[in-house]
């Protein structure tokens, strides 16, 4: 049975970077006989222009029937005046919830060739390779009751609710333990169990699920300490698992350790490891159409797809090694350029990765 990938290029630099990722993936597909087939569909502003909605039913159906989704990016100034309900970003949120993509994986890897791009000292960050697993469809961003109301004394009161059921914690726990098994088998669960009862439950369910994974070393850390440790000594971490809001904040800290938004991939997975894969950056309208965007985050997102959805670690490693070789050969897109390097276009970088794969 061929394995289907829904390809949603989206807006801005989306089509430019996705084209390079597909170039790399198509080569491996033939070279390693992976049995992948690709089908394109519109999302975001491009879909709004064509169909009056950022997430047409045909696109949603394609994603539901596919084994994985590759997304470029959505949005741009052209669509900013639109009502919130039809804004490009709504297309993205729609897919995440329709496909129940509750497990958000954000690796932060610092390539040795780019160590100077980090704001931290080289000795603190060189060799950094950590993964944050963030719960994506629950917690305080979705909990009820929520809102702002006027209390009996006439004062306004704002409320949000951090709520997790055992089953929600259990499924993100399994997801994180399985990822740790594929890495260095160390999992740190981040909570605030000294203050929040909901995270007391989080901690106890994590501990209970951990019994199913005796090969993974589980530890617990309070979120305030985790924020500090990420900046103080980030290399102590292998995999971090945490709730929606804590993960939102910690993953941005971790991303900044690597210093370069054009390099970072992400995955959002469901319970069966079906996933949507995308760079963490947006549609970069300021550089769209110029052929200068960095395609490496999207190419590395494809490597994640091969590892997590298609269980093809060898193919994933080939891409990651090829990205390393391309950087070794000193080619750089504008965002990661420094003196002494060779500046290349979006397709020039894609070609450098392809050549490294072929070599
Ligand atoms: P952005 O990530 O698009 O851009 C921020 C800066 O980083 C810009 O200067 C841009 O040129 C640069 N940049 C981003 N990706 C790059 C790449 N691959 N290579 C080189 N430089 C790159 O964030 P923004 O400007 O805040 O948002 C622009 C649009 O993207 C908005 O409409 C926003 O809503 C949307 N957005 C979409 C997603 C998504 O689709 N997942 C995520 C974030 C923002």
Automatic annotation (TrEMBL):
Entry annotated with the keyword Protein transport: no
InterPro entries noted in UniProt: IsoCit/isopropylmalate_DH_CS, IsoPropMal-DH-like_dom, Isopropylmalate_DH
Enzyme Commission code(s) on record: 1.1.1.85
Top EC group: oxidoreductase
Location in the cell: Cytoplasm
Residue span(s) of domain Isopropylmalate dehydrogenase-like: 4-353
Binding site for substrate: 96, 106, 134, 224
Assembly notes: Homodimer.
Primary role: Catalyzes the oxidation of 3-carboxy-2-hydroxy-4-methylpentanoate (3-isopropylmalate) to 3-carboxy-4-methyl-2-oxopentanoate. The product decarboxylates to 4-methyl-2 oxopentanoate.
HAMAP family: LeuB_type1
This protein's name: 3-isopropylmalate dehydrogenase
Organism the protein comes from: Methylomonas fluvii
Phylogenetic placement of the source organism: Bacteria, Pseudomonadati, Pseudomonadota, Gammaproteobacteria, Methylococcales
Gene name of the encoded protein: leuB
């Amino acid at each position: 049975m061929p394995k289907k990938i829904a390809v949603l290029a989206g807006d801005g630099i989306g089509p430019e970077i996705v084209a390079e990722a597909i170039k790399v993936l198509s080569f491996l597909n033939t070279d390693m006989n992976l049995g992948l087939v690709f089908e394109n569909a519109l999302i975001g502003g491009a879909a709004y222009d064509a169909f009056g909605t950022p997430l047409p039913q045909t696109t949603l159906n394609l994603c539901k029937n596919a084994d994985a989704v590759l997304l470029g990016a959505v949005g741009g100034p052209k669509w900013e005046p639109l009502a919130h309900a039809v804004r490009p970003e709504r297309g993205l949120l729609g897919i995440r919830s329709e496909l129940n993509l509750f497990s958000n994986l954000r690796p932060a890897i610092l390539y040795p060739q780019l160590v100077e791009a980090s704001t931290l000292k080289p000795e603190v960050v060189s060799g950094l390779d950590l993964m944050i697993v963030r719960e994506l469809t629950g917690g305080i961003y979705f909990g009820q009751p929520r809102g702002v109301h006027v209390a009996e004394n006439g004062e306004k009161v704002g409320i949000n609710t951090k709520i997790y059921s055992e089953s929600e914690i259990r499924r993100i726990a399994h997801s994180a333990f399985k990822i740790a098994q594929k890495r260095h088998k160390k999992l740190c669960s981040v909570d605030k169990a000294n203050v929040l009862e909901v995270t007391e439950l989080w901690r106890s369910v994590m501990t209970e699920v951990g019994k199913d994974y005796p090969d993974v070393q589980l530890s617990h850390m309070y979120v305030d300490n985790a924020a500090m440790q990420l900046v103080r000594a980030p290399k102590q971490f292998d995999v971090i698992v945490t709730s929606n809001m804590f993960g939102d904040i910690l993953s941005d800290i971790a991303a900044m350790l690597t210093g370069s938004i054009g390099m970072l991939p992400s995955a959002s997975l469901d319970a069966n490891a079906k996933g949507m894969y995308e760079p963490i950056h947006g549609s970069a309208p300021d550089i769209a159409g110029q052929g200068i965007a960095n395609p490496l985050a999207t190419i590395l997102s494809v490597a994640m797809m091969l590892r997590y959805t298609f269980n093809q670690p060898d193919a994933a490693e080939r891409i990651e090694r090829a990205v390393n070789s391309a950087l070794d050969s000193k080619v750089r897109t504008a965002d990661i350029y420094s003196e002494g390097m060779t500046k290349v276009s979006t397709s020039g970088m894609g070609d450098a990765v392809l050549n490294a794969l072929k070599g």
